[in-house]
Amino acid sequence: MSSGLATVAGRRGVGRRHLRRRARARLRSLSRSLSPKLRRRFLAVAGVCLCLAGVYQFWLRDSALVGVNRVTVTGATTNDAPRLRAALASAARRMTTLHVDHERLERAVEAYPVVRGLEVRTRFPHMLRIRVLEHHPAAIAVTDGGRVPVAGDGTVLRGLPAEGRLPTIEADGGLAGDRLDDEAALRAAEVAGAAPAALRGRLQDVRRRGDDGLVVRMREGPELIFGDAERVRAKWIAAARVLADPAARGASYLDLRLPGRPAAGGLPATTLAPVAPADTATPTPVTPVAPATPTPSVPATDPAQQVAPTTQTPPAAGTPAAQAPAPSPTAPVGEGTGAGGAAAPPE
Prior knowledge:
The chain is of the alpha/beta class.
C-alpha cells in the first residue's frame, strides 16, 4: 500500500517538473523572438507594474491618505441602537476606504443578536457607509420568564419593538441564550416567519397538536394544518390561494401537509335535486279532473216526457286532462226532438 502511494506522489512530482520546464522553454523562446529594444521595454513595464503593486499593497492601502474619518450607520432601530452605532463607528475609523475589514465589523456587533447582516459601501477617499440589517419579529415567545419577540430563525430579539399583532408560540423553559432551545418552538417560529405579510396580522398562535403536527390558528378564519416545517413557503402559498377562493368560504380547517393538494374541511353540505338519467323521457304531470256534476232534469207533467239523467264517465287513470273526452251536456227540454228529448203533445 505504501509503495503505491509513493509511486503516485513520484508521478505527480515528475509531472510538475515537466510543466515548469515547458513554461521556462516558452519564455526563452518568446524572449529570443523579441528584439533587444522590445525586450528592454517589456522588462521596464513589468518592473513599474511590480513597483506600483508593492506601493499599493504595503503602503497606500493602509495609508492615512485614504483613512476613514466619516462613518454613517443606518438601519438600527432597537434600544441598543446608540451603542451599536458607536461600536461600528469605532471599528470603521481604524480602516481605510481601500481596505475594509468586514470581519472586524462583524465582531463589533456580535453582542447584538438583532443584527442579521451589514451592508458596507465606501466613498473615496474618506467616507464609509454602513447599513444594519435587522431581524424582524415573527412571533411572540411565551415562556416562564415572560414574553419576548423572536425572529423566524429562532433568534431572540430582546429590546426590539414588536409592531402590529404577532402570533404567539409556547417555549418550554426560559430564554437564557440568543436562540430558542425548544425544538417545537423553533419550528413554530419558522412557520410564523414564513407567513405572507397580508396574513401575518390574522394569525393567533402556532402550536404542535397531536398527529396534526404544527397547527396555525387564525383570528378570523380556518385552522391551518402544516404538519411539519418542511416546504413552509409552498404551504403558505397554497393556504393563500385557498383562502382567496370563494368556494372555500366557511371551511373550519385547511390541510396543507400536501401543498400540491390542499384540502378544505368543515364545509356545509349542499343538497342537490335528483337528476333523471339522460335516456329517460320526462313524464307529463297528470292533472286530476273532478267528475262533472250531472244536471238534474226538469220533471215533466207527462211521464213520457221525463228524460233520464246523463251519466258522466270519468277519464281513465293516467290520461292527461287535455286528452280526456269532454262530457256530453244534458239536452235541455224544449221544442224539437233530440238525443234526450221528447215531442210536446198537441193541444
